[in-house]
Amino acid sequence: MSESPEKKFQHGLVRELEQVVEKELDRHLSMAKEWFPHQYVPWSEGRDFDGPLGGEEWSLEQSKVSQEARESLIVNLLTEDNLPGYHNAIATVYGQEGAWGSWVNRWTAEENRHGIVLRDYLTVTRAVDPIALERARMQHMEQGYAATHGDSFLHGTAYVSFQELATRVSHRNTGKASGDPVCEQMMARIAADENLHMIFYRNLLGAALEIAPNETMRAITDVVKAFEMPGTGIPGFLKKSVIIANAGIYDLRLHHDDVVVPVLRKWKVWDRTDLNGDGDKAREELGEFLAQLDAAATKFETRREERRARQAARKS
């Protein structure tokens, strides 16, 4: 069976970008710092749980992190737990040969560290209910993971360019909100990895913009308009995301100002003169959507401040 024109285009683009991947992989390896999850966990705080070892059952008062940070840490860990699905998704798009395969495997290995250190920290410090966490992990992973835009190379690369930066912001702010210096240090370490991952994908898509500006611009717009974090399938995600947003850990303003806008600026989306047809149309759509996103962010901020003022008034 002959390839469709779309598949031919995608495979041709992947081949053309192989040298870019080699360069970005070398850059990543030169900047990535080796670190060890066990060094970020306060093991001396650990003790046996109830069950076969007859230890102490978990209770909420044992957790020393804030409720907002607790919910965010759960979301962050359960998101990391779906790594087999993410690996399959990017391996399907990028392939497993040459520099592409080397990157996919390196990225997967680095991401796996995040799940390791997060689970060890949460378990040892009794920050969250370990039984509820395990049940949620099972439920979330049984759902699997399917990329929103299927096996599209451009859409997939655009998505991770934004998603890795969103994850970095969420991790850093979760650490700051935790009230625990050990947690903050750990989350900062994880966030540093996510930043390097973002740079890899951002630079890769930037190269694709030079080769196929119209098709890449369409992919960027599609992704921004339909963007969802990979953990949307987590049990109770909507409630948790509201708590996280109200705490200012990750909300619409951060998404607009600290994630979407900086990446688009780096790609010089608004200054490009090589767009026409659907590429021009996609950029117009993107501008309109960002204006709506900005307005929604302002509305959310206003309502949040009003709620906080009412709460403060009741306490006084």
From TrEMBL:
Its cofactor is Fe(2+). The keyword Nucleotide-binding does not apply. One of its GO terms (molecular function) is stearoyl-[ACP] desaturase activity. It is an enzyme of class 1 (oxidoreductase). Its EC number is 1.14.19.2. It holds the Pfam family FA_desaturase_2. Keywords: Fatty acid biosynthesis, Fatty acid metabolism, Iron, Lipid biosynthesis, Lipid metabolism, Metal-binding, Oxidoreductase. The keyword Oxidoreductase applies. Homodimer. Belongs to the fatty acid desaturase type 2 family. This is Acyl-[acyl-carrier-protein] desaturase. It comes from Actinomadura algeriensis. The lineage of its organism: Bacteria, Bacillati, Actinomycetota, Actinomycetes, Streptosporangiales.
